[in-house]
Amino acid sequence: MLLNNYAFGQLTIQIKGHVSQKITGQPIPSVSATLYQLKPDTTLIAFASTDIAGNYSIKTSSLSDSYKLSIRGLGFETIDTLITPEKNALSIQLNFSLTTKAIELKEVSVKAIIPVRSENDTTTYAVKAFANGTERSVEDLLKKLPGIQVSEDGKIKVNGKIVDKVLIEGEDLFSKKYQLITRNMGADVLKNVQAIDNYSENGLLQGIEKSGRLVLNLTIKDDIKAKVFENGGIATGTAKRYEVNLSLFSIIKRLKIGVIGNANNIGTDPIVNAQYELESDQQNVSSIESVSTNPLVNNQLTTVPDLAVNRYNFNRVNLVGATVSSKLTENLKVRGFYYFSNDKQYNQASNRFSYLLDNKTVNVYDSLDNVRTPIVWAGNIRMDYKVDAKTLITFSSDIKRTSASLKFNTISKNEVLSEKISNEGVEKSQLSNQHLSITRRLPGKNALLVDLNYIYNQLPQQNIYNSARYNSFFGVSPDYNQYNQAIARTSAEMSAGLRWKGSSDTRKYSIGSSLVVRNETASISAQLQTPDQQPIVPIVPDKSFTQYESVYLTTEGHYFQKWDRWDLSADVALQHVRASVYDSTDVLTSKKLWLNPSLTVGYDLGKRQKMRFTYSRNNTLPIINNLISNSILTDYRTFSWFIPALPVITSNRLALSYQYVNWPGLLSFFTTASWASNKPPYSTHLQISNTINQQTTRPIEGTLGQWFVFGQLDKLIAPISLKVRWEGEASRGEQFYQINSTDLRRSQFTSINNTLYFITSFDHPFNAELGFRRSDFTVSTVQPEGLPAYQTTLIKPHAVFTLRPSAGWFFKLSAEWYDWRFKTSTNATQFVDALVRYEPSQSKWSFGLIGSNLFNNQYLVFNQVSNYFVSQQAYTLLPRFINVRVERKI
Fold first, then answer.
1. Contact, 549 vs 589, CB < 8 A?
2. 711, 728 Cβ separation under 8 angstroms
3. pTM of whole model > 0.85?
4. Spatial CA neighbour of 48 closest among 64, 69, 62
């Protein structure tokens, strides 16, 4: 046999030949010739293709008694030939003539992309219909979707409703800190964005509750979700500006992992840490204000009105975040995330104030140089354990630690003295929240829920002010020019709640009861000392201690009913409250019983139109910040203290909303009109400039009553490929406003804001976006004259031009004008940014040149004129810089 003769020779057999058309005899190129070995089983062992002359050649060292050669060409009949080599044959010549065959072309269905579609409580946006490749982050994409608003701090609204969370493929990876996703994850991996209303993470409550919670769900492209996808880049250039970012996600099977990192000094904040929201999903049935996480003395940096933070925020931020979600067993799921952020923020400003007093004018000049260094550690862990098909136990724990050091330097001059004032301090926060929830599904559409919650928070602060004004004001030796103020605050809250939920085809209802016990303490010590902390001069009272205890017992109910086009949602909470305030000299006790109702009536005008009417009333007691009886130095020239009292703070709200959605016509319109009233508590303020001493008893700054109207319109004009978006809001109300150096009066205010965008979406390389925003704000005193006391106008037009001359190149030029007018004065500047990017074909890498603040001024100057002062404020803006950026995607 052939195998026996050549088994040990390691010889090869060559099969070659020519392939041509049977009728014309013309050679056929690109025909495949595939050789199979038939024994012991059929195995592919070699293949080749014909060249331009129709010749092919195959060599194999796999010797066998028989082979099969398959000749296949597009548009020709396939030929299969059995080959049985003769003894000692090392070369075989086989020629083929192929016959053409008729090819039946299958019907190809081209499926059009539907930009937006809505089904029940879910609205789905097709990303491909709105993205053009210029979006660096998810947040950039969301700003382009109709009906969606993204604020400067990254908070998201859909048709005026606040988004609670952002999910990735249904997974809640970063809970309410969704800016970690939206500001750091690339948008090019997204397939769809879903807005899901009445979202319930608890599977046992699906079909029972109408939660009212709105979430966004990001779906990933099919060819990406099955692998790890990443996005990262590095940029550096002039003015020592840099940015490094990385996001990496894996959502494969049971283990979901996400890692995010960012470091920059270009003014960008990768996550907003100004206010921390408790991550717990516990529904607060008692309508009680959350434990305050705001410090007593606000040591934030200077902000510029209506200007993006990255234009003036000198920073050096580092952020890293990680999340893991795993289904360990069929019954146990664990999720956790952690992030760490540190930043060095600094800004510079100069102020000139001319106070118009009764018999003279006082000029004050301030030059500010402020530095703030915040550090944040935060984490969350959540475990869901399914005991059986009807019982779910959920435990979550949130921990956050913050620390911020600050150094504020002010050079102040007036007719009496010139001095350098410094404020060095530190503020910390240690917050923890533990939540245990048990859900039991009952027969029918019913469920029983038990909630246990514990919150603990510490907020210590210390500030040391150096100024000669303090020894002058308190009448002590000039050596005592340090004012040392220490504040200690703790809050602890325990709560327990029991609720029963049920539903039928058209109704949903619940009833529950909760008990909340809260204990808060605050102590303040203040003293004058020399720089070397020699014998202390106490300030009377030199130490104040306040303890605030409150107990809320609540019974609440919820009812939802649907009738054809009508629906009714009613909530009511009956609360019995007992509160006591203790300080060093007195005890203040209050017992209250009140009803907090909420009613919403809806009517569907059709499949595309909805109307809603809402009324709500809420009663609360003051927080501890408003109950401290000792004086607090809130900035270098102002002391203030609060009058201990326990008034009921009542707020009422009426709202009427209308929504029209025609997604096939790419039209979305939403509007709401509301009225709200509020009764703020009172405080005493003492201003202690050496030439301006004033003491007033006045309400804490707040709105007394306000009308508010908001509207948003999105429309795609398909024939001319033009997207139009309009956002407008108007409000009118009353508030307390300072009309001169000593007088505070009830004042009326009017605010009108309008923003209009035109965005082209042509298929050809050039596109443009034009926008215009105008905001007017006017304050007039109710007593006595009714004359305007304050009036500002903001005008902000902008233009963005993009060009794609070829597949790999992309150019972008954006310009923004900032014109802020105060009565007769004008304060204007412009900002120009540019981008050039090159993306090689079939490459994951891209290269760019980024220019920011190319033509803006070094300073932004504000001139203001009011009834009692003239001022000029100058803010230092970020310098011009050009960065080279290298980026890798997916």
1. no
2. yes
3. no
4. 69
